[in-house]
Amino acid sequence: MLQAPPAIPGMREHEIDTPALVIDLDAFEYNLDTMAAKLAPTGAKLRAHAKTHKSPVIARLQMDRGAVGNCVQKVAEAEALAWGGIPDILVSNEVVGASKLARLCALSRISQVAVCADDEGQVSAIEAAASDAGIRMTVLVEIDVGAARCGVAPGPDAVALAERIAQSRHLIFGGLQAYHGSAQHKRTPEERQTMIGGAIDASRRTVEQLKQRGLDCPIVGGAGTGTFEIESASGVYNEIQAGSYVFMDADYARNLDAAGQPVSTFRHSLFVLSTVMSAAQPGIAVLDAGHKAVSVDSGMPTIWQRPDIKYVSASDEHGKLTVGSETERPKVGEKLRLVPGHCDPTVDRFDWYVGVRQGRVECLWPVAARGGVT
Amino acid sequence: MLQAPPAIPGMREHEIDTPALVIDLDAFEYNLDTMAAKLAPTGAKLRAHAKTHKSPVIARLQMDRGAVGNCVQKVAEAEALAWGGIPDILVSNEVVGASKLARLCALSRISQVAVCADDEGQVSAIEAAASDAGIRMTVLVEIDVGAARCGVAPGPDAVALAERIAQSRHLIFGGLQAYHGSAQHKRTPEERQTMIGGAIDASRRTVEQLKQRGLDCPIVGGAGTGTFEIESASGVYNEIQAGSYVFMDADYARNLDAAGQPVSTFRHSLFVLSTVMSAAQPGIAVLDAGHKAVSVDSGMPTIWQRPDIKYVSASDEHGKLTVGSETERPKVGEKLRLVPGHCDPTVDRFDWYVGVRQGRVECLWPVAARGGVT
């Protein structure tokens, strides 16, 4: 069931039906502009990760500011972007199964599409799907640069897989996927620098070994919101896959800069607007947003501009708040902005973004790839 | 975007596109029958909680076995059930906001609908909505029986609110909502008995005080899968709101019986079917099901009938597995059943149930109230 739109353009923020996914458009545009400005002097281009926003509308706003395209994790996300007019899409992930590969190949007739592999059997499966579809599919080799998840080892293993791809008449070798996910949320700049330093070394070494075998890397892609300034200055990475920067979240807000202060490059622009539905017990208020409205996998949400209120626990449809003083306890019907602990899965709870500027609803955008799990 | 159906009836389980929400129909029907058999000799009726399954198809199967109706937490869930033909629905929760109350009152023209309140201002708001709609709304008083979330104090506060409801010509006093959520997952039967003992005492006392004021309680409702046998034997509770029993999950599987063994009343019937998408690194395999496909708020999923494999961490679209021995490591393309840590929010990730019996797809049912957050 599609959720009903929770607002109409022109409404005041307090009139939005809750829980609702709200974008502060001023902060959001600041983030888009800031990323473009940060990357302009580097050799790297933005290929923003659409697994965060799941929206061809937002992807287009990123491309308007210089992004070369988007990346996604799932074929269903690629479909939502391609059907929404995005011309260049990288599935920065492995895709397994004949039906998914057939869908991906079909998409390549309307958009430039590429996919990753870390297994020779998978390269053969992509080759068969591309042959069946009568297209050539671009395939990147994913290398493990420290995340210990997907990816072959940098160096000879990666070169062997790249050669297997390059030798196929149904495939095109597209370069390296070299994302270090676990480095993104390391709290100190030193930790992030050390981990990404290793990723850069591994990528550089592999690029050089590929070059020795006559293989160029059109794409060397990776990086996220936590570390993109390091990769973009490396001279090795040429595509930056940051996604969360458009919205930020409570977990990214815990990353620190060299002065030990929260990194302030980007602003919080994404909120779950929520209503107090019960205040029957002293010291407690209960919101209408629990697990089904806000993701807690990276910690509880925080309350925007209300440090005196703590979101202490979530159940499926309730969020329990404790308040510092009874006089400031929010009343039944009062609306509060939650800053999600983790933006990507929170966005996936909703069918609609409500864009707000200075207290007034300006637009509604569909979360087009919501639930795109396949 | 509605997810594409991941299967066609008649397929083999291994042909289902993943990640997918799979019901083992034999285990599921066993659970339905077992609950009916457990409640038959008690004075209590089942009003199964549809926040678990979000499906009028499953609600009907529960009513076929004697349930008086269903309860839900949100108006959007009530809509999905009423539109699907369920004739008796209790919103076991507070509903705040004029637009939500108008929707609820509109529903009462096609189904018997009731709602809870724990605040006099809210009773007035429900009264105004009912008056506007030209209907009478049944309202239960929610009392806090230990969960410290919503609900007025048992006893005089509850009686005062009930009298306020009963005196309105637009409202009908429907009884007491007395659910103790935090007792459901206490691991030992002694802990559960103690907490529910308190809930029963508080409910009985309030029922008696209401009776002294001439108010009967048509419904005294509460209980969940972890404690329903205690409430149903109490002589006070007459409606049991268990939901998870139809599916069970890894968290409920940690509840113990008097012999210190996992409670075995119900069987696991709900799984997220998932495919290995990478096995490029020793000792590790990566599934295509992460935060977007399985809820981790009550712990990581377990792997069905594969205790040698651990699901150690989730990212948005990946689940990382470690394996006991390299020889038994699942291969790329292999499909595994995950037992979700928490069934309710996991169901909310999907648009379709795939019903499987003995390895073959028998049916697809929509998760009609998926995303019903309002």
| CATH architecture heading of the largest domain in chain A | Alpha-Beta Barrel
Low-confidence stretches of chain A: none
How many structural domains are formed by the residues of chain A? 2
Can you summarize the main beta sheet of chain A?
A: 9 strands, mixed
The shape of chain A is: globular
Number of helices of chain A: 10
Instruction: Please give the oligomerization state of what you see.
Output: homodimer
Strand coverage percent of chain A: 15-25%
Question: What this model shows, in words?
Answer:
- The structure is a homodimer of 374-residue chains.
- Chain A has ten helices and 17 strands.
- Chain A is globular.
- Helix content of chain A is 28%, strand content 24%.
- By secondary structure, chain A is of the alpha/beta class.
- Chain A has helices at 25-39, 50-53, 56-64, 75-83, 98-107, 120-133, 156-166, 189-212, 228-232, 343-347, and strands at 20-24, 45-49, 69-72, 88-94, 112-117, 137-142, 171-177, 219-222, 239-240, 270-278, 284-287, 302-303, 309-314, 319-323, 335-339, 352-357, 360-366.
- Chain A has two domains: 13-21 and 264-366, D-serine dehydratase-like domain (Lyase, Ornithine Decarboxylase, Chain A, domain 1, Beta Barrel), CATH 2.40.37; 42-248, Alpha-Beta Barrel (TIM Barrel), CATH 3.20.20.
- In chain A, strands 1, 10, 11, 12, 13, 14, 15, 16 and 17 form a nine-stranded mixed beta sheet that branches.
- The longest helix of chain A has 24 residues, at 189-212.
- At the A-B interface, strand 10 of A face strand 10 of B.
List keywords for this structure.
homodimer; 374 residues; 2 domains; Lyase, Ornithine Decarboxylase, Chain A, domain 1; 28% helix; alpha/beta; TIM Barrel; nine-stranded mixed β-sheet
